[in-house]
Design brief:
By secondary structure, the chain is of the alpha/beta class. The protein contains 5 helices and 5 strands, in the order E-E-H-H-E-H-E-H-E-H. The protein has one domain: STAS domain (Transcription Regulator spoIIAA, 2-Layer Sandwich). It has a 5-stranded mixed sheet, sandwiched between helices. The longest helix has 16 residues. The radius of gyration is 13 Å and the shape is globular.
């Protein structure tokens, strides 16, 4: 798994995920978002683009769930968007689509951020 900051505008950080999000990857870095974004990471508005994510296992779902909870606790927001069908199926099978804030694409994710700010 690779995470990279694509942009940061108007209090919104756009992060892109690529590769496989698996137990092996997360064993090396258990908090990749916190490491990438630094201090105050979970108090920010983050859009996570998963369009280049090839695979997500249960450890990956667990990592997303823990991250989601940290964002809630610190009054930040995590919106996951552009999720490939194979990854979205895993999320739906585990009913995490009822927990995570998901958007079909980047435009819709940005619209969700702007709705809440209004």
């Amino acid at each position: 798994m690779q995470l990279s900051i694509e942009s940061e505008d108007n209090g919104v950080v756009q992060v892109k995920s690529s590769g496989r999000i698996t137990q092996d990857q997360l064993a090396k870095k258990p908090d990749p978002l916190g490491d990438l974004l630094g201090a105050g990471a979970f108090s920010r508005n983050v859009l996570l683009d998963m369009s280049d994510t090839e695979f997500l296992d249960s450890s990956g779902v667990s990592w997303l769930l823990v991250s989601h909870k940290k964002f809630q606790e610190e009054q930040g927001r995590l919106i996951i968007h552009s999720v490939p069908p194979i990854v979205l199926n895993v999320i739906k099978i585990l009913r995490m689509n009822l927990v995570f804030e998901l958007a079909e694409n980047e435009q819709k994710a940005l619209a969700k951020i702007q709705e809440k700010a209004s």
